[in-house]
Design a protein that fits this description.
alpha/beta, Isopropylmalate Dehydrogenase, Rossmann fold, 2 domains, ten-stranded mixed sheet, two-stranded antiparallel ribbon, binds 3-isopropylmalic acid, binds manganese (II) ion, IsoPropMal-DH-like_dom, manganese, EC 1.1.1.83, NAD, D-malate dehydrogenase (decarboxylating)
């Protein structure tokens, strides 16, 4: 029996509800499969923890996590209306991303059968895009400062940091991912028309890395026109690689185009596995929905599926993806974000039931 050790952070808002749902599904999956079990250690580091202690996590939080020997981290959304977002996010999520060198943020954006996209899409093109977002530096490097606060001469600087090591490796990841998963095209999302230093550098590195992958086609798109392309010709978008902020913005667009923020998963990866990777829905903490049992748990459950795939649990990952697809396609059980009236609990139970059926076809990501 193989044990997978998980650090679980219910975190904020609807987090506890969607994380409990994800754990329930994982345990059911393990039960059905037989060969594996999940050992979950829960951490209460969150906005509530901040209210008690003045910190989002203990000063030695990263060391504690590292010492725990976890295979992965499953996290709910972070953020509370009562605390400025930059405090909660830099106090936990962004610190873990940087500290654990999770330099890839992998975000599949796929229109599942049974979901209505806000796009008209008269030809019913399949929409399936994968955002490979640089996740550890760039616009989120955290470098900068403010002087003369509150005075007319105040200056605020947020520097964008691109290093060759990080830029190269995220692009290599994008090409490796494309190759391994049978994608034909990698699009470089850039803004080198106006940003003549960092983005021209970014394009150069892209070209250099691309040269090692002759079998993968490439193209280049300025980030502003990328938003238009994702809306008007989403079928032409396959894998794209983008800087931290550009990837952040485009992945919300992709989530909306594929039907609901309640479906969009993400994987914060340290591909070398020197540190645990972190899996989290891309939606926020949605305090307005807390305690109502209406949050769509599928984004979090799909994130757990990405975790299984990353950990090499291919059979479990395939089975879980197939269950998610079955529930969505079936349309009988759906939460309000998908136009239904089902509860979080009902949706979770539907996934657990669907798991009992063997997967019929190999699925994408
Ligand atoms: C995301 C989120 C975070 C980000 C926020 C909460 C800091 O929007 O994971 O996309 O910008 O990366
Ligand atoms: Mn975001």
């Amino acid at each position: 029996m193989k044990t997978i050790n998980l650090a679980v952070f219910p975190a904020d808002g609807i987090g506890p509800e969607v994380i409990a749902a994800s754990q329930q599904v994982l345990h059911r999956l393990a039960q059905l499969h037989g060969g594996v079990s999940f050992e979950c250690r829960e951490f209460d580091w969150s906005s509530a923890y901040y209210h008690k202690t003045g910190r989002m996590m203990p000063a030695d939080g990263l060391q504690q996590l590292e010492a725990g020997g976890f295979d992965a981290i499953l996290m709910g959304p972070v953020g509370s209306p009562a605390i400025p977002d930059h405090i909660t996010l830099w106090g936990l999520l962004l610190t873990i991303r940087q500290g654990f060198d999770q330099y890839v943020n992998l975000r599949p954006m796929r229109l599942l059968a049974g979901v209505v996209s806000p796009l008209l899409n008269p030809h019913r093109h399949p929409i399936s895009m994968v955002c490979i977002r640089e996740n550890s530096e760039g616009e989120y490097a955290g470098v900068g400062g403010r002087v003369h606060q509150g005075k007319p001469g105040e200056v605020a600087i947020q520097s964008i940091v691109f290093t060759r090591r990080v830029t190269e490796r995220v692009m290599r990841f994008a090409f490796d991912y494309a190759r391994q998963h049978g994608h034909r095209l990698v699009t470089n999302v850039t803004k080198s028309n106006s940003m003549q230093h960092n983005m021209v550098f970014w394009d150069e590195v892209f070209q250099q890395v691309a040269a090692h992958y002759p079998a993968v086609a490439t193209d280049q798109q300025l980030v502003d026109s990328m938003t238009a392309r994702m809306v008007s010709q989403p079928e032409t978008v396959d894998v794209f690689v983008a800087s931290n902020l550009f990837g952040d913005i485009l992945s919300d667009l992709g989530a909306a185009l594929t039907g609901s923020m309640g479906l969009a998963p993400s994987a914060n990866l340290n591909p070398e596995r020197h540190y645990p990777s972190l899996f989290q829905a891309i939606h926020g903490s949605a305090f307005g929905l807390v305690g109502k049992n209406v949050a769509n748990p599928l984004a979090s459950i799909w994130s757990a599926q990405l975790m299984l795939a990353f950990l090499g649990e291919t059979e479990l990952a395939t089975r879980l993806m197939s269950a998610i697809e079955t529930v969505v396609q079936d349309q009988r059980v759906r939460t309000p974000d998908l136009g239904g009236t089902s509860s979080t609990t009902e949706m979770t139970e539907a996934v657990c039931r669907a798991l009992e059926t063997e997967p019929t076809a190999a699925t994408g990501h």
